[in-house]
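Researcher: Re-running this chain for the archive, since the previous output was lost when a drive failed. Same request as before.
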Amino acid sequence: MQGAGDKEVLGFYGPAWLINYVMAGNSGGEKPGEGTYGDWAVCAPNVGFFWGGTWVLANKDTKNADAVAELIKWITLDPSEDGLQYGWANGTWSGEQGTKDTVASGTVMAKSNGELDFLGGQNMFDVFVPANAYANGTNLTQYDETINTYFRDAVRQYTAGELSRDDALTAFKTNVADNLDVEVDF
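Model: Regenerated structure tokens:
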């Protein structure tokens, strides 16, 4: 991410939070011209994906049901400039300029300024709003995190030169089949 190493990196696949919470801090700088800060951009991936989400829960027996309902509505459904998501998207939730971030509401992102210096001034929301079409939970299972862990482990062993590509794929498929009784077919 810093542009250091024997080989250049074309890019990274990841969730929206990868930009602010992983890449920016590992770019070797804090402003354009330092390390690779400002040299990155977001583009639509060749395949869409969905990775979890953020949850807000309330106790069904709360004595403050009306207040809790209003709070949850403000957090999740209020697209106004006074809503949590607008402040979060624009980096102004605390009243000061902070980190701009993607939010659950495409309506909010479409009317927000997602320009980031880290992305060379690109408005990340121009890419993320249409990408929201991929965010659905229709294919989620109770096995997802375990399968992801097995896959990451196999990929790490492959990229470290510990396993060949074929051996890494076999290890991944074997872990899934042996531990989850699920067949991987690709």
